[in-house]
Amino acid sequence: MLLNCKHIFIISLLGILLAGCSGGYISISPATTDNSQDNSTTTTNIEQEAEEVVNPCASYTKDGNTFQGQYDGVDCDYSAVFVDSGNPLTVDLLINDLANDGVHNFAGSLVVGQSATIAELTAAGITKGGDGPKLSIEAGATLAFPSAQQFVSIVRGSQMVAVGTAEAPITFTSQSDVAAQRGTGTLAFNAVGEWGGMLINGFGITNKCSYTGSAGSLTMASDCNVSTEGLTGNDETFHGGDNNEDNSGRLEYVVVKHTGAQVGEGNEINGITWGGVGSNTIVKNIQTYSTLDDGIEFFGGAVNIENFVSVYANDDSIDLDTGWSGTITNALVIQNEALGNSCIESDGIGSYSGKSAETVAAMIAQGINTKPTIKNLTCIVSGQDANTGDRGEGAGVRFREAIDPILTDSMVVMAFSSDDADTTNYCLRIDNTETAEGFTTAGRQSLFTNVIFACKDKTKGVASIGGLSIEEYFEANGALFADGVVSDDDPTATSNTSLVILEGIPPIYSVATESMVVNDAAVTMTPTSGRIGALSTAATDWTAGWTYGIHEGSRGAPLWFE
Q: For residue 488, what pLDDT band results from cuts at 50, 70 and 90?
């Protein structure tokens, strides 16, 4: 494509400017003024003939210079000169939906805001989400990246407002996926690591930092700057603070596909990573599809999610850590047939193994251990184990390391697949004495209500809770375990009348509770939400129209259990 003289001059000028500041810290400016006005009409002069070129690509003005993506008639291309981890956005930016299914292709990472310590951010006037630059994305837009080295990062103090619709979701994916969708390339339906992923940061509470006071009135004992997992070196960014009501923006009807990058052992980029993201961030109707590591992972903060879908995470679909205290309402989790670990893996305290029992007890008393609330989870997991890398075997939910979970109106199902011969593919795992004590200790919130577990291997972990086995305790306190689940014991009425909890095409919808059957008996639970699980054929299907990989017409292959 052609670059006009204006663009050449701008690129040259920026190169000089970047070279001049590469040896020191780049100054931070809150820059809350919206400079993302429509600059779609550019005048060029080719061979002295003036012509008008319509350019719908995103643009911004900084220091008197205008930067804009290059339009090839369908797609918009953005070089690292436009934005990258070493050249982050420090002003507002609007990305429009392009006509004719055009795609916004980024050569570098899309980084919004300058990574810095709390002290540096405060000096620049950035103390909360919204003080820094804002990235706005129009419904229907698709953003694509070339490799696992590129990612989207929303730095503390910045915001992303990506509001799609069921008819026009916003998609973050790889350029290889775009090529495959257009028929100009090929990509396996479950490919991972095609680009990095998304990281959103905020000033929320994390037990990786020290605080005075207790839950509800915590104050940082010192600056809180926790390096966000998956990024190192020049890409590094931080999260954390003492504001669990921080606002990192708004995401609605957003699909994130084919992500993942492994930086080191236990240090990976997930589908979406939430670092200290606060509860005033609005998140509704989001999906992660085919991720190298976790679908979503929370590190502290208190962001809530309504309507979440994870399909084919190669590790955990939902991972909770370092003091997250939010709520997930309606979660459909479909693990791989042979890859992937837990539907939910959760740690109550970061770096738990390196802390004394006294320190752990003090953090629990302070209320900074992880306290998740999960409502209406449908977890479909395979009992197979491919023994690939360190991802572990297929499993249900695992609570450990002094976590205080609430799980209600939910089901964990491993009845569609043949179970491995060993006992590793559990439905429920409770690890560590401090976690078990959360269910029997006054003042702690741990609670299961109206939960069905249907797996051959029911439980794993601590020897007892309140003097009972894990199964005995939860059978007496809000849960029901299916007995005798065997290989390929389809939990629908089509093949098995002793276990009937799912129905529909595909079979991801909960049977009405009054019609459910477990262990040849009617289920007597009364869910507070009106159903057990994420979806029901009797209610509006909130996954319809915008998700990928579930319904015919928007997937690369049928679900493995269909």
A: low
What DSSP string describes 47-98? TTEEEEEE--S-EEEETTEEEEPEE-SS-EEE-TTTSBTTB-B-S-EEEPPP
Tell whether the model's pLDDT for residue 373 goes beyond 70: yes
Give residue-wise pLDDT tens across range 248-296: 999 999 999 999 987 655 567 999 999 999 999 999 999 999 999 999 9
Residue 340 lies in a domain: yes
pLDDT at residue number 85: 94
Contact (Cβ atoms closer than 8 angstroms) between residue 161 and residue 249: yes
Cα 262 from chain centre? 16
Which SS3 state, helix, strand or coil, does residue 7 take? helix
CA distance linking residue 454 with residue 396, whole number of Å: 10
Examine residue 561 and state whether it is found in any structural domain, yes or no.
Answer: no
Domain extent, residue 125, equals 103-477
**Could you tell me the two tokens for 340?**
């992937």
Q: Which residues is 50 bridged to in the sheet?
A: 45
Cα–Cα distance for residue pair 249/155, rounded to 1 Å: 11
Which residues are CB-neighbours of 158 under 8 A, at least 6 positions away? 112, 113, 129, 132, 133, 134, 135, 248
* Residues 259/192, Cβ–Cβ less than 8 Å: yes
Q: Which two tokens stand for residue 42?
A: 């550019």
**427 domain residue, yes or no:** yes
47-51, 88-92, 404-408: which range is least confident on average? 47-51
pLDDT, one tens digit per residue, over 311-324 is 999 999 999 999 99
pLDDT tens-digit map of 53-100: 689 999 999 999 999 999 999 999 999 999 999 999 999 999 999 999
Report which of 392, 393, 528 is spatially closest to residue 448, judged by C-alpha positions: 528
- Number of domains present in the structure of the chain: 1
| CA–CA dist 430, 459 (Å, integer) | 8
| 263 SS3 class | strand
